[in-house]
């Protein structure tokens, strides 16, 4: 299992959190996704054999939230 943290541009509303979390948490290969409104971070736990970090980043971008930085550990 891998962990990736994505830094986003500032979020404008709390519903942004639900939009990102609901989409990522229902995606195969992603075990958990949580968004911090105040720090603009999305933390994910995922199976790198099922989904790539680039795919997760692209999903976030497609939702309309530009990713500024991604850290994988």
UniProtKB/TrEMBL annotation:
Keywords of this entry: Metal-binding
Record domain HMA: where: 2-68
CDD domains linked to this entry: HMA
InterPro entries from the UniProt entry: Heavy-metal-associated_CS, HMA_dom, HMA_dom_sf
UniProt-recorded Gene Ontology molecular function terms: metal ion binding
Cross-referenced Pfam families: HMA
Ligase found in the keyword field: no
Keyword Metal-binding: yes
Protein name: Copper chaperone CopZ
């Amino acid at each position: 299992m891998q962990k990736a943290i994505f830094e986003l541009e500032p979020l404008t509303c709390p519903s942004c959190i639900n939009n990102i979390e609901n989409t990522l948490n229902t995606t195969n290969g992603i075990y958990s996704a949580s968004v911090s409104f105040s720090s603009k971070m999305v933390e994910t736990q995922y199976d790198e054999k099922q989904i790539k970090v680039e795919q997760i980043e692209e999903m976030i971008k497609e939702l309309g939230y530009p990713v500024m930085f991604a850290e994988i550990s």
